[in-house]
Known about the structure:
By secondary structure, this protein is mostly helical. It folds into two domains: 2-72, no CATH class; 81-110. 82% of the residues lie in helices and 0% in strands. The protein has four helices and no strands. It has helices spanning 2-16, 19-41, 46-69, 82-109.
Amino acid sequence: xxLDNYKDNYIQYKMNxxxxxxxxxxxxxxAIENLFKEAATIPAKSQDTSExxxxxxxxxxxxxxxxxxxxxxxxxxxxxxxxxQYIVIGCLGAITLLLVLKxxxxxxxx
Length: 110
């Protein structure tokens, strides 16, 4: 449960940058570290602690993988619609075409 809490809040913090997610994942991280410290003092089978360590590594890999799958932000604000982008690109193309053809029309008329 702590691992899920850590993972979810870490991903939300990386995506949104809100401090409440950061404090939540840091709290979960400290609780997990405390569990490791307690587990180290209790004589237990080495297989149990290695399974927990492997699970933590796996959860960290999942969190990093989830972060990598988030698409990078676009260079254009999301408030622009595709129609607006197409209109702007069309106007720029028309202006470019006029600037390219203008010298040719001046040569033909003289």
